Amino acid sequence: MASLFTGRVLVVNNGARDELDTDRELGCSLENKVLLLYFGSGECPRCQEFSPLLRDFFVRLTDEFYVERASQLVLVYVSQDETEEKQTKFLKTMPKRWLSLPFEDEFKRELELRFAVSDVPAVVVLKPNGEVIVGNAVEEIRRMGPACFRNWQEAAELVDRNFLLAEDFDDLARRSITDPIRRLKYKLNKKTKNEEKKEEGEESR
């Protein structure tokens, strides 16, 4: 999926407005995930109705308050806002994990044409390889909420790396916490054994 944005910059919707502009950064953020392209506008009445639903949908699948591990889901906002100020104002009300194209990037128009987006709001759901799962998932999200992600996950045939990475991390955490204790215990045992040997040597004299 990173290939769709090769040579582009994606902006993270956090206070720092960090940019993902290298193949490695884009790969880490987009690969092996279901990608949502959200074509919308902060001032469109239909978008004003739908955007809070999409925000809640995304948060419930990715925020640790609701789920133990974030779902393999990423969203890129393809702005249809009239000005950069309006885009910025809208994004301030949306999740910090959302990504967006810079306002001035003409690639937004190319994405509209590629995915035949003629009206907003529109949510295009893509597999990691760029194939379309759903041309416009707005009604599906309205009707099913977060439950529809399972259908997309199956269609995308994602490798469930979240659990593997989490297990590896847990093992590493356990090792990092207990290793100093084990090393201390080993030193104490070694010291005790040396003292015992020393005492045995003194007794044999």
Topology order in helix (H) and strand (E) letters: EEHEHEHEHEEHHH
Major sheet description: 7 strands, mixed
Which homologous superfamily in CATH is the superfamily? Glutaredoxin
- Domain unit count: 1
Number of strands: 7
On the 0 to 100 scale, the average pLDDT is 83
Q: Which term fits the overall shape?
A: globular
CATH architecture label name: 3-Layer(aba) Sandwich
**Structural class estimated from helices and strands:** alpha/beta
Strand order of the largest sheet: 2-1-5-4-3-6-7
User: Which blocks of ≥5 consecutive residues have pLDDT under 50?
Assistant: 162-187
- What is the CATH topology? Glutaredoxin
Provide the β-strand percentage band. Answer: 5-15%
CATH class: Alpha Beta
Q: Nearest-angstrom radius of gyration?
A: 25 Å
Per DSSP, the total helix count is 7
Instruction: Give the CA-CA distance, first to last residue.
Output: 77 Å
The proportion of residues forming helix, as a percent range, comes to 40-55%
GO cellular component, one term: mitochondrion
Protein name: NXNL1 protein
Domain Thioredoxin-like fold: 32-132
InterPro entries: RdCVF (IPR029520), Thioredoxin-like_fold (IPR012336), Thioredoxin-like_sf (IPR036249)
Record the SSE blueprint.
Elements: E1 10-12, E2 19-20, H1 23-30, E3 34-40, H2 45-62, E4 73-79, H3 84-91, E5 99-100, H4 107-114, E6 122-126, E7 132-134, H5 138-144, H6 148-156, H7 161-203
Parallel strand pairs: 3-4, 4-5
Antiparallel strand pairs: 1-2, 1-5, 3-6, 6-7
